Amino acid sequence: xxxxxxxxSVFVHFFTPSTALGVNYGMAADNLPSPSVVANFIxxxxxxxxxxxxxxxxxxxxxxxxxxxxxxxxxxxxDIPALVDNVSASGxxxxxxxPFYPQTEIKYICVGSEVLFSNVTDWINNLVPAMRGxxxxxxKAGFQDIKVTSAHALNIFxxxxxxxLMRFFDLRFFEPILQFHRQTKSPFMVNPYPYFSPDLxxxxxxxxxxxxxxxxxxxxxxxxxxxxxxxxxSTYMAMRALGYGDVDIVIGETxxxxxxxxxxxFATMENxxxxxxxxxxxxxxxxxxxxxxxxxxxxxxxxxxxxNQKPGPLVEKYWGLFxxxxxxxxxxxxxxxxxxxxxxTKPSPAAPAPSGKNYCVPKADVSYVQLxxxxxxxxxxxxxxxxxxxxxxxxxxxxxxSHAAFAMNSYYQTKGxxxxxxxxxxxxxxxxxxxxxxxxxxx
Length: 443
Hints:
The chain is an alpha/beta fold. Helix content is about 30%, strand content about 15%. The protein has helices spanning about 1-10, 35-45, 60-65, 85-95, 115-120, 120-140, 170-185, 205, 225-240, 270-285, 370-380, 400-415, and strands at about 20-25, 50, 70-75, 105-115, 145-155, 190, 215, 220-225, 250-255, 300, 360, 430. It has an eight-stranded parallel barrel with strand order 1-2-3-4-5-6-9-10. A two-stranded antiparallel sheet has the order 7-8. It has a two-stranded antiparallel ribbon with strand order 11-12. Strand 1, helix 2 (about 35-45) and strand 2 (about 50) form a beta-alpha-beta unit. The longest helix has 21 residues, at about 120-140. It is globular.
């Protein structure tokens, strides 16, 4: 009877459709392009139609004005207790939302991040009152279309093995949250990360969408061939057990790192390609999950860039889907000109130039400030920088790394091909790979 009841619940449950594939835009780095360059890149060259940031950076909010890209902004965990007060909540909206909305399409305010995981009582106890305070302040300001949510790590379940048995371990925390979401028609936001599974070493293929024996749920008679589907259906079943299966689910973060040290053996380029590529394929195909078929989850991939200033182990710096020069380190179908994401692959390496031809380009980890200095110096020394001006053959991609590379190489070729002329205070490197592309020809 339990199995029949659960199966029937699947067929009568309907969701509000969503087609959004978004990305988390972190800025803990010193070599990133400006927010305006990033906004233009996302709008014109990627399939992302939404962006999530981890603060309310006014430069970012201004950059995305009138782009058609929706934004999720975030309230820091430490700011949660103050927002319980109605006056403070209204002041927060006046300062961080009113100057930018509706020119900037702010879709969600995410109150805190993985608050339960923090174990800070003041944040946990005040989360729902703060969410309600912000919701009331938005309504009072006439911003009813902006919804309030909070992102949750998926270590929130009792330890079970199959989705149909999954339950929240702290019902007193989650029931008021889900009640708030139903009342305000806002989504429950979760961060599913198979990468952080405690038994990843024995279930790696299951996490990476690779061939595996799967996991059979005897109560729903569903077989799971990947951990992502299992995590999403576990979330749904835990919500449903509390009577909130009708509340929408948004994926606030998911991704896989491409590099780490000895303590992160599964953070590899190959694994990042497999996981991220298959998630993108799953979301954009509207395949859904075994218990939520034909469903497109609104999803924010993590993350837009590698962030060289993030604290913690090396792996924390390598979650990016794009490099600072706005080129992808691997192909998972995120650029508009890529028509298929069915077979995620590494990019083909550029062909070497004829023997004896050298070029000068910046090193990969050069800071934004140093790139600007290299660009300014090279262009001030009499070389022709008109190709990287607006309308020039090398203006696009409009990134500081790309422009600096062209200028540095032009300086190197014009002034003489010596190592000294490609030094640029230790930020330049000589390569035999021709950086030319399309109509942009390097000297």
